[in-house]
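[step 3/7] fold_predict: job queued, chain A
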Amino acid sequence: MIEDFHLLRPWWLLALALPAIIVWISSRSADTRRQWKGMIEPHLLDSLVIDSSSGSRMRPSWLLALVLSLAILAVSGPTWERELPPFVEDTAPLVIAVDLSPAMDAIDVSPSRLERAKLKIKDIITGRSGARTAVVAYSGSAHLVLPLTEDGSLIETYTDALATRIMPVDGKDTAKALELAETTLASEDVPGTILFLTDGIEQKAFDAFKLKSKQGIIVLGIGTPDGGPVKGADGSFLTDAAGGRVTAKLDVEGLKNLHALTGADVATFTDDDTDVRWVSQRIRTNFAQKRAAEGDHWRDAGWWLIGPLLLLFALSFRKGWIVRVGVVLLSAHLLLPSDARAADFAGMWLTPDQQGRMAYENGDFEGAAAHFADPMWKGTSFYRAGKYAEAIDAFATVDSAESWYDQGNALLHLGKLDEAVTAYKTALKKRQGWPDAAANLAIAERLVKVKKDEEQEQQDDPNLPPDSIQFDNKGKQGKAGKINIAEQTSELWMKNIVVSPADLMARKFAIEAQGKKP
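[step 4/7] structure written:
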């Protein structure tokens, strides 16, 4: 952005005096008349001096001054965008707010608006592997279906159970849903996104959307402008007082006004996955922009001027051995294989870390790891490439909070939970109160507990094959015992009670609507 443009090292602009001095000295030395004015009579000087204006228009001194000016500008570090830290969580938390007002049962979209919204949720979750997602359901009231979780199957189970009939309050209150979604994301250390799946946003909710927060807001309209009849909970079409069918239309104009007045990203659903890809891209863009805005490092764009500098510097060569040597070197360079030629060229002008950074930004993480000399960047590249053992080796050469934190992340991927806990604790000792390390430590400790519980269950499982079989020949000598059949039957019956997620949510939402805790 042009308003963010500035120089990282502005004091280098003082060196621009050097090109100006070169041009001034060159212009004075090129003034032949001034040099001979004191030794030759003026009327003879006009005849003796040859006008050089018919020669080359571009003087070497001018070209040198231009090259130096560009070089000074490059060294001063022009920049206009922030740079993300090398090792941050790159998957933004997402809250999906699903409209469950009766209009979502309209069948202008097959099989219905709500069912189509569920399919879109499934596609979005599939493309967000490893990212945390929460679900909110709303109509006249708003309720949390699931808190932030990485469990895609759990999200699918509960979103499939969503139905308009489970909502305790009629109507639509999008402002409450927005407030609940922001509360869900409030404890997150990274910026998140709130996605609304609805057939429209009521005008009274616009003020809530105007209050800009650190969360991005996306609205995906479900439905058609022509609308369609609305089905009731019993499968029959809803009718009005006159006996006609109730129809619902997608509020396209309202969505356009929402975008114009609040800046929220708005789109309507598509039959293919274009809308899903758009939503995913907006989530990533919002995450990158928010994280960059919070970052402390700016991306140095001065190296982009290397190409023009080389071209202008080549034009400064004159006839002679320099040009011949340059042609020979260029010819030899072009005869090299393309990969070797690229590596050789990069090695001429870029440091290993710069070459690694270019490979990293192009997604070639293994190549980046091979170039990087910085152990943290090398470890990060190995981590991105999925080589967690190599990443740990690289991080281990640095004794810092960030290094131990990164080692913990890699150890989690390798399933070394106890070692990951130790790494996170070490990181917290070196950097007390670090929220990211504390959060990951809690996750690792929970995983350790789950693993121990599973191992204990396996040990207690009576269906495991026996190590040996022994027969009790003294069985007849045992005492007779009594079994409470009624008590066992009651216990088994309680275990076999199955409550559907839809009924569970309906009960929970009703209690919440009454102002009671479930």
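[step 5/7] annotate
The first strand starts at residue 6 and ends at 7.
The chain is about 50% helix and 10% strand.
exit 0
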